[in-house]
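Lab notebook: predicted structure, single chain.

Context: the supervisor wants predicted structures on file for every construct in the current expression panel, including those that have not yet been purified. This is the next one on the list. No modifications to the sequence; it matches the entry in the shared construct table.
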Amino acid sequence: MTDTRTDTDLIIAGGGLAGATLALALARVVPELRVTVVETFPLSPDALPEDYQPSYDARSTALAWGSRLIFDSLGLWEVLAEHATPIHHIHVSDRGRFGATRLHARDHGQAALGYVADNRWMGLSLMRALLDTPVSWQAPAEVTGMTPMPGGVCVEIRKGDEHYSLTGQCLVVADGGRSGLREQLGFVTRTEDYGQNALIANVSTSDAHGFTAFERFTEAGPMALLPHGSPVTAENQSALVWTLTDSALEQVLALSDDQRCQALQERFGWRLGRFTRIGECHHYPLKLTTVDEAVRPGVALVGNAAHALHPVAGQGFNLALRGLMTLVEQFRRAVDEGMPLGHLSILGEYQRLHRQDWQQTVQFSDSLIRVFGQSLPPLAAARDAGLVGLDLVPGAKRWFARKAMGTGGRKPFVPRADCSKEPARNDQ
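Prediction complete. Output recorded below exactly as produced.
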């Protein structure tokens, strides 16, 4: 039996970056809604650290320029910028070949092409912002099931030894790419295994990066180095995404830190001078995961629960963020038109509008990996010609820049875009 005191309008399963951003956007754009976030970790706006000390080993996320506009519209960018490093230049190259493409923010009239933001700082900033909203939290707790009901859903929740139900108009699944709830609810995923792993770490170099992001394609797989770090170390610290086969990953993990720096030097080259330090290494297998139908009456998938991409192109969270704002746009329409949030016409329109974006983004990211992952001489020569042409042809370069900046598709819904203020650090 459902306790009416726990009834809510929208239930978000997952309070990570995607779930917390969705909750904040709803509080800003559709404040009439009662929103409840269910999170498995003991996270809540009620218990936050008072200060923040950046760690060398902090994980980070690449934010496109379009994502900065969205966070600006939510009133969060000025805070996020305190621990976000701007990307002024992007350098794309093919190891051992002459082809290369270079993008510069100034050529596109922007302060930056994108940013590299500290994940923990993003989470803390979101939680602090949620303190001033009526969003409620169930944490640590877990959504264990869902039953459709007239006009909405009945969601089963486990919190410690307690089991109870919560009714709402709609359930949004935002619990990540390894979502157990997604499978439990019967959503069918399609997965393509790249046969590779991503090794993630922060590295230091003898030469300053000059706020340049490097996308380096090698015969052993792609790698990316993104400018990242505290205000003191920012110009000599980068976030590494290193693609490795299973056997190569085992070899790298068996090395000492100095040996890993040497192996990285051999793969990347000397564009940033000598690699002087590598931090704590994390790794995970790379797969392209998509869901053909990400909605059904009363339920919607968002973020990595709906699509998980190869990280080297830095498109994953940016695609997710655009999808979140598309869903918020439809929830705003539902309230204005007096329709249930979980009505299929509302959720179906979210899927229709977001589908073209994710299809194009998946195709863009996947094609980069597959084309640049081939070592056959004819294909390598064709890649060289393509990179040179991309660097020389203004129209092609603008298209590539729009993709990189996250502004190449449907314009994302932003309720109050105000970019008159520049971010606090390193944008000049």
